[in-house]
Amino acid sequence: MIIVEKLNKVFRIPHEKKNTLFHTFFSFSKGAYQFEEFHALRDVSFRVQKGETVGIIGKNGSGKSTLLKIIANIYRPTSGEVVVNDEVFPLLELGVGFQPNFTVRDNIYLYGSFLGFSRREMHERIARVLEFAELTRFADSKLDNLSTGMKSRLGYAIAIQGDAPIHLLDEILAVGDEVFRQKCRERFRTTRNEGRTILYVSHDLGSVQEFCDSAMLLHQGQIVTMGSPDLVIQEYRKMIAMEEAA
Amino acid sequence: MPIEAGSSAVAVTRPRSNFSKYLNIVRSLAVADFRLKYHDSVLGYVWTMLNPILMFGVYYFVFTDVFPSRIQNYPIFLLIGIFNYAFFQDCTFSAMNSIGNKSGLMKKIYFPRSIIVFASGGTSVLSYLINFVVLLGIIFSLEGIPRLAWLIPIPVICLLVFTMGVSFLLAALYAYFRDMGQIWGVLLLAIFWLSPIVFDVDALPPSISRYVYFNPLTRIFGLFRHYLLYNYYEFRFMGMTVVYSFLTFIIGFLVFTKNESKLPELF
């Protein structure tokens, strides 16, 4: 279960980038440190029940990723309460920490360790990972020699080994060709049916409609509506249409 | 089980984290760094040993032929200083940069940020320990095994603990001040000449050596030489060195963890 109560996140964006000691030391005289406040999230409150799949939609910069990052414990809230009572498996980007100079096999172990797998656990899964990514033949070639598509497939194949009860997914179904996407969709459906709690950020409204039990529309850091995916997507389309008309 | 409870306005509740999982990340990162650093080859490793060996050669030439030193057993005296200083330099520098190099990872996956510094330190410690075995081999073959050689883990631990403390402090500072790299480069040069690496602190007049002893490295290098070169043991001196080293570590680590949650936003 995830409980978020009156969550606020404010980023301070300094007027002049003062991140050297030299600069800090020699600009004391100019008076107080000036910055712009950017309210990425405003009074966001919601609950996600165990086993629920919730889609989060909204325009770029509406706060979707910031919200996931706070739930994933990467950013600290400015104020508010966050309760996450189970282990979280964050998938905010595929293939973070890949080493281009290592082989595909070594990268599987490395990435696996970031996702919380021991060497032994990864050893048991490596054949499955390679097969899913369709890269068995290239297990011992350098990652650098793989195409971009192959790398994302590999990232996805490792990532789906995650078995934590809560999954946070940021725009990760858009990987590979049509055949691979089909496989990803199937895999998503299985994950969902295994009773996991999923927060799913996407611009692909079709997949939100297809997979999510409910959806949430964020706009400028605030929740506009929450409810059945059909209604929320309708609302989102209306919002976009109104903005285009204006 | 709240892990974090910051100011009254913020409350974050999470399940207890898994220590063995984090240990596994430290190991993977350290091994990956080690492999990248040495290009997976023995030759790559030999190259990095070339640095202290070359430094040794140059200083040995300068202080035996240009300004002859009166220190007894000068080659070993110098080797001890240079090998241990090389670790201090390598470890602090790479730990400071590690926090920037791993910022991508930090922004996408949660783990205690100190893991990054521990892993970077682990890489440096790994190569230091290999270097140190080589150093001991040289000393033992030249001088035989000193009577107090079994005490050598004490200064090794002091050096590692002290260096990690400084590394944590620098890593935290680097997040706020991106020019720490340049600043630390200059400071390292000063530290090299203000620590008894090429000179003997006890040969200085007491009015000066008092200040040189404020530098924990002076004490740590002193312990190494006591046990490997002079067959000398003094409990008080050893105890103070241990206390200074661990105190530095605690301060550095606390400063780092205090700022830990802000780190991903600073890059």
List the helices and strands and how they pair.
The complex is a heterodimer of chains A (246) and B (267).
Chain A: E1 2-14, H1 21-26, E2 35-48, E3 53-57, H2 64-71, E4 79-84, E5 88-91, H3 104-114, H4 119-132, H5 148-159, E6 166-170, H6 178-193, E7 197-201, H7 205-211, E8 214-219, E9 222-227, H8 229-245
Parallel strand pairs in A: 3-7, 3-8, 5-6, 6-7
Antiparallel strand pairs in A: 1-2, 1-4, 8-9
Helix pairs in contact in A: 3-4, 3-5, 4-5
Chain B: E1 10-13, H1 19-37, H2 42-66, H3 74-101, H4 103-106, H5 114-143, H6 153-176, H7 180-194, H8 206-212, H9 216-230, H10 235-259
Computed over alpha carbons, the radius of gyration of chain A is 21 Å
Number of domains in the coordinates of chain A? Answer: 2
**Numbering strands along the chain, what is their spatial order in the largest sheet of chain A?**
5-6-7-3-8-9
H-E order of chain A: EHEEHEEHHHEHEHEEH
Report the end-to-end length of chain A measured between terminal Cα atoms: 40 Å
DSSP helix fraction of chain B: over 70%
Count of beta strands of chain B: 1
- Beta-strand proportion of chain B: under 5%
Supply the number of helical segments of chain B.
10
CATH topology of the largest domain in chain A: Rossmann fold
- Largest sheet: number of strands, sense, barrel closure of chain A: 6 strands, mixed
Query: Which chain pair has the greatest contact?
Result: A-B, 41 and 39 residues
- In whole angstroms, the N-to-C terminal distance of chain B is 30 Å
Helix-strand category of chain B: mainly alpha
Outline of chain B: globular
CATH architecture of the largest domain in chain A: 3-Layer(aba) Sandwich
Largest sheet of chain B: none
Low-pLDDT stretches of chain A are: none
